Amino acid sequence: MSRKSPIPKMPWAADHQWQLKPYSLFVICFAMALMGIGDGLLVLANLGATPWTIFAQGVALQTGLSIGVVIAIVSLIVLLLWIPLKLRIGLGTLLNVFIIALFVDLTVNYIPTPSGMIARIFLMIFAIVLFGISTTFYLSCQLGAGPRDGLMVGVCLKYGWKVGVVRTTIEVTVALLGLLLGGTLGISTIAFALGVGWIIQFTAIAFQRFSRQTSGEI
């Protein structure tokens, strides 16, 4: 069993998950803001929601609960899955909830909605890439992950599997479950499910190379 983190330790990383290190706090807050913007741009593209949102939609249709309530319940259940993976809640876990939600709202409310299909597709691609890269930045701060990202990291740590494989498997599974429960899939849903994990992995590889170069390793 490998315990090597899939996200390399970077110069801005904190020493522990509750350390109030200014550099780490700046990077994680900025990265999460960009994640919120990416999520908001995906909404504006209007080509389909993310897999977890589709799943929440499906559960809401089956239970009569609101999507917001379902998202909260699902987040709690995912956090419970952290227990066998021996993960701990950190400052980043809390910041994840508030900062991303804030910037999703700001993006949706203040950025114009594109009208043409080409513009919407371009916005979708840009949003997914931005979300994936920003996710790697915030995880590299080592201040703790959000519920879903923590699940990905925990599985990678426990089994030594690649980020791209783990994240894609999780996203595709959630999307299919959402579809079976009555949720509506779109182009963005499929693109996000198949692409975001590999974007995170490629960014992590770039971080690893940068870390080796700065440390003088060959």
Automatic annotation (TrEMBL):
Coiled-coil region: none
Keyword field contains Lyase: no
Entry keyword set: Membrane, Transmembrane, Transmembrane helix
Residue stretches spanning the membrane: 25-47, 59-82, 89-111, 117-139, 159-181, 187-207
InterPro entries the UniProt entry points to: YczE/YyaS-like
Pfam family name, one: DUF6198
Protein's UniProt keywords contain RNA-binding: no
Listed name of the protein: YitT family protein
